[in-house]
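TEACHING EXERCISE
Course module: macromolecular assemblies
Task: Read the component lines below, then compare them to the predicted structure of the full complex.
Student: A.B.
Group: 4
Components provided:
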Amino acid sequence: MAKATPTPAQPAGLDFPLVRRTGYLLNKAGSILMEDAERVLMAQGMRLRYFYVLAALESDLSLSQQDLSRLLHLDPTTMVALIDEMEQGGHVERRRNPSDRRRYILRLTDSGREALERAGRAVDAVEQDFLSAVPAQDRERLRALLGDLLADRWPRVIACE
Amino acid sequence: MAKATPTPAQPAGLDFPLVRRTGYLLNKAGSILMEDAERVLMAQGMRLRYFYVLAALESDLSLSQQDLSRLLHLDPTTMVALIDEMEQGGHVERRRNPSDRRRYILRLTDSGREALERAGRAVDAVEQDFLSAVPAQDRERLRALLGDLLADRWPRVIACE
DNA sequence: TATTGTTATACTCTATAACTATA
DNA sequence: TATAGTTATAGAGTATAACAATA
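Instructor-supplied answer key:
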């Protein structure tokens, strides 16, 4: 509110019709942020989707692989390979679920918890850098708006236990 | 402002730490919108990146293939295949640039202009549907915020000539 | 019969290197 | 020498189908 920006969302030096579409901007912002995060995490031997899995497992919900794949919108078969890599990296453990022996219960290891924290700090920095063009109040406003927009779009099933 | 939303960006039924990251929300919003648009455009024999190319060519800037690839952040070699398809579909024409015979000048055909309009309406509908969860004032606010965030991130070179 | 995890496989997308024609 | 466009090709990512173990 304090900022006087009567000008439209048309940035310096670039004028083509897509730039005035919220959808295109949303898409672009998301992919830029993803690429930046991926680049920073790579330096830690980490990847963005590893980070997503670690973050999802932080809440002790007894998630299975397919729970995870639904939650993160990844194919179950790619989740197999993903968890393979993360288990080999020592960040995640597979235990059989005693009450349904088809499923695993995935658990963070101590090393996984450390990696999560380290990656979290890196991703924080990337996000803050990206969002620094806008005052803090607007950053919070943006987060709230996005939360509202996505409220009905989260995956239905997050089966625990 | 009229809406009383003291609640954080934590949607109904889903609580895990990623959901409170603006970066994750941005990413998710962008990819959902992209998938929705792709699905709708498919029914017209259209694709989202065709639409991007058509929209970029609407402004008569004498863009070459590499201009386009820089503008849309696509590899020059994928741009070749892309323009091949669109030329075969009759939406785009390649003409040699007389002042630099290495380059093409890409032009919309009449059919391409029609396809652009039709696709534009479809994408409008998708965006409006996605954004309908939020009042019009906030939609405009969102667009302005995203525009500010991206102002410094647009590709440097948009050679016209 | 349905579901979880798994493998093998095919398909799409993207990136790399080498070539041509122009500059 | 450098650049625009092109081709061939390799690599990553993703999706499909079939299977074993369990429910």
